[in-house]
């Protein structure tokens, strides 16, 4: 028996049947590594403490979802009601209306808003003029840095009967009478989708442009020699090299299907379009903060979080299958 076999059998370099080292050995190796780099390793301790205080300890508050909590109670004294809050959710018509609105807006954003940053990034990357490229990037990034309070006020003004949008349609002869578009509930999904794309599309190109900047230019030179057109180069070189970041963004987007933009909703929603504008986040906010039903709002939030995790894992599994069983997370 050789030396390696002896060491393995005696436990010095023992490996468990599943291919992993025993826990005790991994702990010892961690301690050794920590002692060797204790100055650097210690820098992460404040971050760990911060996460424990503000991320993990508040998890105890999720018990409110299983209690009948009021403002005169504490987390310990509030009476337990089991799954009663979740049963109320399942029979709540207004909650399911909010779910439909959330999914409708989210799928529109997924179908349109996910593709546009990729197209915009490729178009910016293909620009030859450096100054013009920087100008386009700056203009496309700018809306991201404006709050929804500012952008919402602009949209409310533009969509009013005397606003820019109505005046433009009147001058083109598209409409004969001005109308306040934000008061039309049937158009709200498109308003929410397109305004979100306007705000975030430019910012969404940053990761794609960073990836494209790392692509070896010799690939394009070889493709030109072979007679490949610019579109063929994009299809066969640019997009395949962006596959990992596209997959990552797709996973994160799918996991957030039930989480619509609360700021956007609160700014653009009014009494006339509420039927189509109310989303899960605004519904939770209204039930918890406005009506004081904290247990119900917490139960909704907990259910949405669980479903979001399931969507995240499912999307990761599907994309890993499409990427030769390599996960991007």
TrEMBL record:
Residues 99-315 form the ABC transmembrane type-1 domain. It comes from the Bacteria. PROSITE patterns: ABC_TM1. Its main location: membrane. The chain crosses the membrane at residues 44-66, 103-125, 145-168, 188-213, 234-258, 294-313. PANTHER family: BLL4140 PROTEIN. Belongs to the binding-protein-dependent transport system permease family. This is Aldouronate transport system permease protein. The lineage of its organism: Bacteria, Bacillati, Bacillota, Bacilli, Bacillales.
């Amino acid at each position: 028996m050789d030396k390696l076999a002896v060491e393995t059998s005696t436990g010095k370099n023992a490996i468990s049947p599943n291919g992993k080292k025993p826990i005790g050995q991994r702990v010892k190796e961690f301690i050794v590594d920590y002692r060797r780099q204790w100055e650097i390793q210690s820098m992460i301790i404040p971050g760990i403490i911060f996460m424990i205080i503000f991320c993990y300890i508040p998890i105890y508050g999720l018990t409110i979802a299983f209690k009948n909590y009021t403002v005169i109670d504490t987390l310990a004294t509030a009476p337990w009601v089991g799954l009663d809050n979740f049963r109320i959710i399942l029979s709540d018509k207004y909650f399911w209306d909010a779910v439909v609105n959330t999914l409708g807006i989210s799928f529109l954003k997924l179908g349109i808003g996910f593709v546009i940053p990729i197209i915009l990034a490729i178009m910016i990357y293909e620009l030859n003029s450096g100054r013009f490229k920087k100008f386009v990037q700056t203009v496309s990034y700018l809306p991201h840095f404006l709050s929804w309070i500012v952008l919402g006020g602009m949209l409310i003004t533009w969509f009013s009967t005397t606003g820019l949008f109505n005046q433009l349609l009147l001058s083109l002869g598209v409409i004969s009478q001005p109308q306040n578009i934000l008061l039309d509930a049937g158009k709200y999904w498109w308003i929410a989708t397109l305004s979100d794309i306007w705000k975030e599309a430019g910012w969404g190109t940053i990761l794609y442009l960073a990836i494209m900047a790392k692509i070896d230019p010799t690939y394009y030179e070889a493709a030109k020699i072979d007679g490949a057109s610019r579109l063929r180069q994009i299809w066969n070189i640019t997009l395949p090299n962006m596959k990992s970041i596209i997959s990552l963004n797709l996973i994160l987007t799918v996991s957030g299907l039930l989480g619509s933009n609360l700021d956007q909703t609160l700014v653009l929603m009014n009494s006339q379009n509420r039927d189509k504008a109310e989303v899960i986040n605004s519904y939770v906010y209204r039930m918890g903060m406005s009506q004081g039903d904290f247990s119900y709002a917490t139960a909704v939030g907990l259910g949405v979080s669980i479903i979001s995790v399931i969507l995240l894992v499912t999307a990761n599994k599907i994309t890993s299958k499409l990427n030769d069983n390599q996960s991007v997370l």
